[in-house]
Design brief:
This protein is an alpha/beta fold and 286 residues long. The protein is built from eleven helices and eight strands. An eight-stranded mixed beta sheet has the order 3-2-1-4-5-6-7-8, sandwiched between helices. It is globular, with a radius of gyration of 19 Å.
Length: 286
């Protein structure tokens, strides 16, 4: 067993709130940290809405939904994570932000064997470990959106991650959370995004060049290739800012043109058109 009973999550956005819900549904004590009171309220709303959808679909009953919410505490104070066995960082996909958090979290955690994990999609884990002061206990653990539904988790050890840390995280993912883990090397994009992001960027370039409408591009891949969702709708779901950030990170590492971001993606992110999270991207979600 992983020995993980107390979990912290930093960041209450779509991914962070989903990871907190997953951990709580596994019967674990969860502390979710956000930057301010308004953000805390939004994170609470996300968890409540997700549990409500699970109730409607018959995945859980009302008593279980209440119990799941009761096991999650919300705070704006990183110091409240001191006693955690595991802290998962799920902040915005920005290297400077994540490095700053790992510096602070490395000092906050009091247990010598406490694990510090990042849900990053692309930032090198070895960099995060180096600034934390506890590199052996730092590992990548990449969930997919929506975390309560998606069954895959990528485990990404760095050159400095200890075998014990990786074994505990594998047990946590597979035994505690009952999800499927695959191993990835510590390189930008890991396994899934190394394949997925070039596909999404190619679809965005096709849209930008006027090959076809967003709807026709997506219907082509759904009806022609049997994909459950078209690439532009999927980019909206992931978040166009996140897709852009992953592409930049991968391009910086490999210098491959297929990872470079299309100008229209830059413009949309600069305009705040981030996809589903902002109610407008390639599609409108008002």
């Amino acid at each position: 067993m992983s020995g993980i009973e107390r979990v912290g999550v930093v960041g209450g956005g779509l991914m962070g709130s989903g990871i907190a819900e997953v951990a709580s549904r596994a019967g674990l004590s969860v502390m979710l940290i956000e930057v301010g009171d308004v953000a805390v309220e939004r994170a609470l709303d996300r968890v409540e809405e997700s549990l409500h959808r699970a109730e409607i679909r018959g995945k859980i009953d009302s008593a279980e939904a209440v119990a799941v919410l009761d096991r999650i505490d919300f705070s704006t104070d990183l110091e409240s994570l001191a006693d955690r066995d595991l802290v998962v960082e799920a902040a915005s996909e920005d290297e400077v932000t994540k490095l700053g958090l790992f510096r602070k979290l490395g000092r906050v955690l009091t247990k010598d064997d406490a694990i510090l994990a990042s849900n990053t999609s692309s930032i090198p884990i070895v960099k995060l470990g180096a600034v934390s002061g506890r590199a052996g206990q730092v590992v990548g653990v990449h969930f997919f959106n929506p975390a309560p539904v998606m069954q895959l988790v990528e485990l990404i050890p760095s050159l400095t991650t200890s075998p014990e840390t990786l074994a505990r995280m594998r047990s946590f993912v597979e035994s505690d959370l009952e999800k499927h883990a695959i191993d990835a090397t510590d390189r930008a994009g890991f396994v899934v995004n190394s394949l997925l992001v070039p596909y999404l960027l190619s679809a965005i370039r096709m849209y930008e060049a006027g090959y076809a409408s967003a709807d026709d591009i997506d219907r082509g891949m759904v009806l022609g290739c049997g994909h459950p969702m078209g690439p532009l709708a999927l980019a909206d779901l992931i978040g166009l800012d996140t897709v852009r950030a992953i592409g930049i990170s991968m391009y910086n590492e490999f210098k491959e043109p297929l990872y470079s971001q299309p100008p229209v993606l830059d413009r949309m992110v600069e305009a705040g058109l981030l996809g589903k999270k902002s109610q407008q991207g390639f599609y409108s979600y008002g």
